[in-house]
# Entry
Amino acid sequence: MYNRIKDAVRKKGLEALSLLAIVVLWQLVADLIIKNKLFLPSFVDVVLSFSKVVKSGAIFTDISVSLLHFGIGLFLAFIIGIPIGIAMGWFKTVNRIFDPIIEIIRPIPPLAWIPFAIVWFGLTHQSAGFVVFVGAVFPVIINTYAGFKSVSIIYVEAAKVLGCTSDRALIRYVALPSALPSIAAGMRIAMGVGWMCLVAAEMFGVSTNGLGYKIWWHYYLHQMDFVLVYMLLLGFIGFLIDRAFRHYLDDRLLKWRTGVVM
Amino acid sequence: MSRLTVTNVSRTFKNENGAPTSALDNINLEIKDKEFVCFIGPSGCGKTTLLRIIAGLDTPTSGDILLDGTKITVPDAKRGMVFQEYSLFPWRTVIENIAFGPKMQGTKKEKSLKIAEKYLELVGLGQFKNSYPYELSGGMRQRVAIARALATQPQVLLMDEPFGALDAQTRNTLQHELLEIWEKKNVTILFVTHSMDEAVFLADRIVVMSARPGKIKDIIDVNLPRPRDRTAPESNTLRNNVLKLLAREREK
# Structure
């Protein structure tokens, strides 16, 4: 038991200490220097507000609504972006057709689509999902394309002499697995961008719940401790989603890459 | 019966400016069933190009290649190939790599894995069944590549400097093993190499090629009984002959 603790301290001690120090510093600065809840709510304020939103249950509605928006956007980005990226990476003609369109639309910041999202979908979940989709789809397309472009010719030729000759079979059995690390990286980037777009989309009032929406709402009420609760929640959930995704990939899909220097 | 006939095969490459380079010029060759033929020559003599054309990975500018009277145009599993580079699919385990060929030919999954296991035993790597390629040494990877190429039961096995990246000792071991497999499996082998030792140790016939344009300079019959002694006087004489042929080629 003692050894276990010692081990844990040695491994994560410094990290834990760092977090603890920042919390203490925060509390001291808020209590002794700023002394103004609007400017900087203290750690204790935030914890108390957090327990309030947990008790009222608001937090669970907000999280599930936000995850719904995020899910709609990401799901669409994956099922549309990956096939487009594959087609562009494998067939030159498709690339020539899609590339100019994508290059023109891509630099438009996703948030600039909010007016159209509202006009097209109204103040609905789909509307927020659409904004997330616009932000997430391009990293997916571009990374899938790049992954397909860098499929080593030697694997394609090896597959061909083993009787795997049709485009469909080559894509499925050679190009796709070979490009998977790059596609996965694109998905991770997309999730990060999507998470940011989510907050903005919700702030613009495309829905009446959600983590992003609540930040704005509490700001109007000048409840900065609640604003901070939702900010931290966004950070934590974003972090957890990324961790879970990476864990899943490394364990399941990319086991063969162990030993590859990234 | 699987006779390979190469008739008047030429291959010209064009560079960016459109200037043509002749990689192969009028190659004629007949290879008997179950023969072991080595191709040797200076770099740029088109030996790899010839092998790729026979595999169906490249098309000749003119001329034909017939296997049992059927013209070769596209790759198929009748001709297996082992590459110089490590070509195992890194995302598949060893056994899945070998089972890939049978699977592509429509064999059921369990059956393909059974076949794969048989070939894995043939190259003596049974215990590495579920390893990924990155876990294997270079020599083991090429053994698996050989097993993978054989698993589709090709009539001809094409080998493009398969042991080129290996150290000398591993190379010798693999040459031994390859001959054993060849005798067991009765397959025709076309083997590209730049090593005189390798050619003299392995081949029934050595095709010596010359560069720019790639042509067949000479075909030497190796009438030495197997197993061959690498340092026997006969081997040395043969090696010297080929070396002289190649040296003359370099002076040109």
Chain A has two domains: 1-35, 41-253.
